[in-house]
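Quick start: read one record
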Amino acid sequence: MPVNQLETTLQAITTTLAKLEKDGCTDEARLEGLKKERDKILKELNIK
């Protein structure tokens, strides 16, 4: 996957997480899944 696509996906996941947390989402499975996906992308980009 090209870096630009990874960055775009990372931005979308981060924005979604922030919105869900701000809105008080209580679906821990959804939040945890998004966080795991975000961490995976960060690792691929050698950021984390």
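Helices lie at 3-22, 28-44.
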